[in-house]
Prior knowledge:
The chain has 13 helices and 19 strands. By secondary structure, the chain is of the alpha+beta class. It has a domain at about 185-400: Vanillyl-alcohol Oxidase, Chain A, domain 3 (3-Layer(aba) Sandwich), CATH 3.40.462.10. An eight-stranded antiparallel β-sheet has the order 15-12-14-13-17-18-16-19. Strands 5-6-10-8-9 form a five-stranded antiparallel β-sheet. A hairpin with a 5-residue loop joins strand 8 and strand 9. Helix 5 packs across helix 12 and helix 9 packs antiparallel against helix 10 (about 375-385). The longest helix has 14 residues, at about 320-335.
Amino acid sequence: MRWNQIKYAGWGNVLTADTQVARPERHSALEELITDCDHILPIGSQRSYGDAAIATEGKGLKTERMDRLLDFDPDTGTLEVEAGIKLGEILRLFAPRGWKPAVVPGTGMTTVGGAIANDVHGKNHHIDGSFGQHVESLVLLTADGNARRISRKKEAGLFKATIGGVGQTGLITSAILKLHPCPSTTMSVSENRIANLSDFVDAFEASTAPYQVGWIDTLAKGGDLGRGILEEAEFSAQPAATIMNQKTKSIPMTPPGFAVSGPIVKIFNALYLRRVPVDGRTVDRPINEFFFPLDKISDWNRLYGKKGFYQFQCVLPMERAKDGLSDLLEIVSDGGIASPLAVLKKMGEGRAGYLSFPMEGYTLAIDLPNRAQTPAILSDLAEVTERHQGRIYLAKDGAISSDAIARMYPEIGKFREQVNKVDPGHKFISAMAKRLNLRGQS
Ligand SMILES: Cc1cc2nc3c(=O)[nH]c(=O)nc-3n(C[C@H](O)[C@H](O)[C@H](O)COP(=O)(O)OP(=O)(O)OC[C@H]3O[C@@H](n4cnc5c(N)ncnc54)[C@H](O)[C@@H]3O)c2cc1C
């Protein structure tokens, strides 16, 4: 197997690795590759923002060439795929045939392996739960070089440690997914301006739409705190059609950090809000553009400049949502860091793994450019999250302490038991697992 020395970063471009990475294509190469390495980490598309996919202790195994479709039952929508296939590709191929992944996150670049390892959620979490809940079984190549098919019925503990287990139990080589019916490749999207945070939560509670997402203007203060736009969507009545490849643009060079400075973000936010008429509007949007709006610009993360950015994402329980979200937004609007991207979603109870992020309540995700004051702001946000009994999302994190994570994830003990049993030598390890002491042994 060819190993290439590469430097790479998490999506936030703050936490980096400089290590040897292989891109295997054939399953026959995998067993040897894993048993020959002292330490290794599966890597998907590197869409995790912090250090979940950062291999600082050993080598990296990028799954991008393990992307084949293996089997499909058109009567039940049961699809077997290799773990390196991207969710956007599954949507592109299957939506015109009436099926879609049950859950997709905000980027179609996420691989099936990455979606399982972070048990990702989408705009329909309040109804359909997390990605892992729609995984029937998966094949896991463990530290001893053996491949085992695991599910809720077979090795249930290991299955629950692997879903949301950030690559620590082994390499997921393939999975069987239950797709959902997809009656159209167009979404009917209603957009409405929302005046403040309290109205936002009330509007989510009143909504019956299967897909919902809110954008928040983080520069608004006082009575306007939490104002933004709520998008509610359902499948349009238009019949399914072939999805055109989304045309992507790229950023030709890394712009200076002031591309996301306060005055520019202020103008952007004001324009974004006014994009939607005062009385709201309903528009049709191609399904891939609705689910993956940011994928239009392939490397938009470079807009934050060379120092990169963090994304903070937490979830707060329903009863603490209004107070807690207000405390969080005040920290950001008073913090002197302009964030152009803040997203609010409602979550249901659905979660499939011991370290799965979701809980019933509201989740807020905010981009924070990496400036001198950012670590202090992140620490304040984490403290408020904990005070309101919430938790922080590992897919986005690059800053929280190991003690806080252990308190936020009550099933971490069960995760540790499984992972230390299946991989006692810590062959699978990431910078995040070390930083957060996920295995509980440092
Ligand atoms: C624009 C954008 C929008 C996003 N929106 C959402 C959202 O709405 N909801 C949400 O939940 N997340 C969202 N995310 C986060 C993203 O979906 C997750 O971080 C996801 O895990 C990324 O998948 P990946 O294939 O890039 O995996 P990577 O980021 O490369 O890896 C993530 C983790 O998965 C492990 N892993 C990867 N492949 C395998 C494998 N085959 N076997 C075992 N472990 C593996 C890695 O070791 C690592 O720990 C978003 C990210 C971006 C950039």
